[in-house]
Amino acid sequence: MITSEVADRVYRLGHAFVNCYLVEDDGRVLIVDAGLPAIWPLLAGALRERALRPQDVAALVLTHAHFDHTGVAARVQAHLGVPVWAHPHDFVLAEHPYRYAHENPRAIYPIRHPRALRILGSMAAAGALRVPGVRGLQALPQGGPVDVPGRPVVVPTPGHTAGHCALHLPDRDVVLSGDALVTLDPYTGVPGPQIVAGAATADSALALASLEPLAATGATTVLPGHGEPWTDGVASAVEQARRVGAH
């Protein structure tokens, strides 16, 4: 259900090759990204595992509004009564999670990268084809901390989507990179630090440029939207992602 603590009071909940994270601060919880619909009971179990209650959840922050990161966002908003934060450039996408820009035709990827079939099948089984839209979002600041548990600093990292943002937790030496930098690409099945393939990235050149503000955080631990945590420093992850380039 919930994995080990991946950073100081930061917990990874991975399901169907998609990660969301719980950031705990004085008994209050921030959820970062909302997975796919099937994560809902697992989220409740993860809170119980940490001796936390649903009413301890203070907010949900979306690094971006693709369907595999907004799966239970509307449910969290409605049932827990907490604000959902995102960059304004992703508000329309949050309402219509399947109307996302992408550089390359999606259909070619399972043919060229058959190892991705298991990943994409798992995502479909977890509800990837039935994610509801979410409205009434709170606008993330252009920079600086957000007044939610952990007080993450917003790091604008557009490219994967127009409004993609990473979240830096300076006091915990962590950056939650969302899909600005992943360690597993769901569309190719290839592990290691990289940007996501053009099947789901709006502007790969901009996504590669957005690795620079990620590197500038200097964080030791990178917590991606897909794949395992990276603990060898964000600079080395960015260097590898640049070498891989767009695909």
Summarize the structure.
This protein has 247 residues and is an alpha/beta fold. The chain has helices spanning 40-49, 73-80, 91-95, 108-112, 116-125, 204-209, 211-216, 234-244; strands at residues 5-7, 10-15, 18-25, 28-32, 57-61, 84-86, 138-139, 144-145, 153-156, 165-169, 174-178, 182-184, 191-194, 221-224.
Would you state the CATH class? Answer: Alpha Beta
Q: Classify the oligomer.
A: single chain
The shape, in one word, is globular
Distance between the termini: 32 Å
At CATH level 3, the topology is: Metallo-beta-lactamase, Chain A
The major pleated sheet works out as: 7 strands, mixed
CATH superfamily annotation? Ribonuclease Z/Hydroxyacylglutathione hydrolase-like
The count of strands amounts to: 14
CATH architecture heading: 4-Layer Sandwich
How much beta, percentage-wise? 15-25%
C-alpha Rg (nearest Å): 16 Å
Unreliable stretches covering 5 or more consecutive residues = none
- Order of strands, main sheet, comes to 1-2-3-4-5-6-7
> What is the helix fraction of residues, given as a range?
10-25%
Q: What string, H for helix and E for strand, traces the elements in order?
A: EEEEHEHEHHHEEEEEEEHHEH
Structural class: alpha/beta
